[in-house]
Amino acid sequence: MRMVDLIEKKRDGFELTTEEIQFMIKGFTDGSIPDYQMSAMAMAIFFKGMTEKERADLTMAMVESGDQIDLSAIEGIKVDKHSTGGVGDTTTLVLGPLVAAVGVPVAKMSGRGLGHTGGTIDKLESVKGFHVEIDNEEFIKLVNKNKIAVIGQTGNLTPADKKLYALRDVTATVDSIPLIASSIMSKKIAAGADAIVLDVKTGAGAFMKTLEDSEALARAMVSIGNNVGRKTMAVISDMSQPLGYAIGNALEVEEAIETLKGQGPEDLTELCLTLGSHMVYLANKASSLEEARSMLREVMKNGEALKKFKEFLESQGGDGSVVDDPAKLPKAKYQFELEAKEDGFVKEIVADEIGTAAMLLGAGRATKESQIDLAVGLVLRKKIGDAVKKGESLVTIHSNFEDITEVKNMLYENIVISPEKTEKPTLIYKEITK
Ligand code: URA
Ligand code: CA
Q1: Distance from CA of residue 352 to its chain's centroid?
Q2: Which of 400, 318, 352 is nearest to 132 (CA)?
Q3: 188 catalytic per annotation
Q4: Are 206 and 84 in contact (CB under 8 A)?
Q5: Closest to 197 in 3D by CA, of 235, 243, 151, 150
Q6: 183 an active-site residue?
Q7: Of ligand 1's atoms, which has the minimum distance to the CA of residue 184?
């Protein structure tokens, strides 16, 4: 088999066979197929697309390019949740303890990564003592005992995807639905998920800005998952404005605590109940979505969800008392209010720009080397559709430096107040199960 023939075949719009895709990914991973050929292939895929079968084959070839995590020692159906990423997305912090409290095993492998705020591990590290440096044996033991544990990225997972993603980044081939979908799904499958719930964000703060693109990506991932034997579903949710109120690491932990008590922001709570219901249902812990939802509501109300969060933090060295006293979380030196300059209604809160403002305060990493400040960030006081009066606070800015002129300017530019009443945006656009 020769790579040049496969490039030509894809260029001319034909379907690659399973063996051809395996040959290509194996050769690219071991270096026998050079970057320039893989670049040409990525561009051919960009223009010609891939069939459902090719997408499933590409995903599995990437899964098989490295280690696969074996979670078979954990009892029950392991359901993983994946979000395509947004601003102030506190869902993972809430969902883990929430579904664990009704008996769904949560075996989460998580990362730090770049972005407006840290990743899930960074956020959790704002709890004193909490750490993810546990070995696989301890990880599995904890999940079996508590139904929830988080471990840092271990093993050599999907090296083919790492290499291909880096190549796509410099060859203008990132924006290809088959390539994105197989990239995301390969990582979830290699991490050992039996079933997958996807939260595909749409809007200004999302990877996919339009509903049409978000739906195409969601459908592509759901079909890959189901074609390779993992029950998969996707929710398409709004990311035109940040989710919840808090954007920052410790600030989001506090928001998660409120939400686990049933006292969180309306949008964050609703999205967690929706995603959580699907997780509980896919894990066979409820016979319908309605039953799943009422189980989750119950553990928010009776304190079991919060208790689970505390138990989880303590099992991994964390100070669980923050759950009763969030004032123990790291706190920024200064708190400034962003005062509205006029009366009206909030029309827009441009999510990605607000996220960048949080990053300027130090809440996220711009490069791998940046240091995160766990204490800082933003807490929105208003969301789209809310009425505001001149002088009222739009945002509380938690900062460790005094001169925040640049941050304030960015926020003013991206929180649009209009004299006309505005509707709240739709939170959940679609739920896609096949
Ligand atoms: N995120 C991924 O993990 N892969 C892509 O290709 C795009 C976004
Ligand atoms: Ca939030």
Answers
A1: 15
A2: 318
A3: no
A4: yes
A5: 235
A6: yes
A7: 3
**What are the distances in angstroms from CA 201 to CA 19, 175, 198, 211, 269?**
34, 15, 9, 9, 16
DSSP secondary structure, 376-410, as one string: -EEEES--TT-EE-TTSEEEEEEESSS--HHHHHH
158 φ/ψ sector (left φ>0, alpha ψ -120 to 50, else beta)? left
Contacts of 310 (CB under 8 A, 6+ apart): 320, 323
- Distances from the Cα of 412 to the Cα of 75, 334, 391, angstroms: 50, 19, 13
- Please report where in the chains the tokens 């999907």 appear, as a residue: 158
Residue 319 Cα to chain centre, angstroms: 25
Sequence-ordered list of residues with C-beta below 8 angstroms from that of 275, at least 6 positions apart, any chain: 81, 91, 95, 197, 199, 235
Q: Is the pLDDT of residue 114 over 80?
A: no
Give the ligand 1 atom nearest the CA of 207. Answer: 8
Specify the pTM. 0.95
CA distance between the termini of the chain: 35
DSSP assignment of 119-185 equals -HHHHHTTSTT------HHHHHHHHHHHSEEEEE--S-B-HHHHHHHHHHHTTT-S--HHHHHHHHH
Known catalytic residue: 161? yes
Cα 120 from Cα 271, distance rounded (Å): 17
List the structure tokens of 314: 């303590």
Q: What is the C-alpha to C-alpha distance for residues 275 and 364, in angstroms, rounded to an integer?
A: 25
Give the pocket of ligand 1 (CB within 6 Å): 165, 179-180, 183-184, 207
Residue 48 has pLDDT above 80, yes or no: yes
For 167-220, the pLDDT digits (tens) are 999 999 999 999 999 999 999 999 999 999 999 999 988 888 999 999 999 999
Tokens standing for residue 60: 């599995």
Ligand nearest to the CA of 264: 2
| Nearest partner of 160 among 23, 11, 49, 43, judged by Cα | 23
Residue 82 CA, ligand 1 centroid: distance in Å? 12
Residues 219-222: contacts with CB under 8 Å, at least 24 apart? 219/432, 220/55, 220/177, 220/178, 220/180, 220/181, 221/181, 221/184, 221/185, 222/198, 222/432, 222/433, 222/434
> Is the confidence at residue 103, as pLDDT, over 90?
yes
* Ligand 1 atom, smallest distance to 174 CA: 6
Using DSSP, state whether 67 is helix, strand or coil. strand
Tokens encoding 144? 């079996």
221 pLDDT higher than 90: yes
Percent of the chain with pLDDT over 70: 100
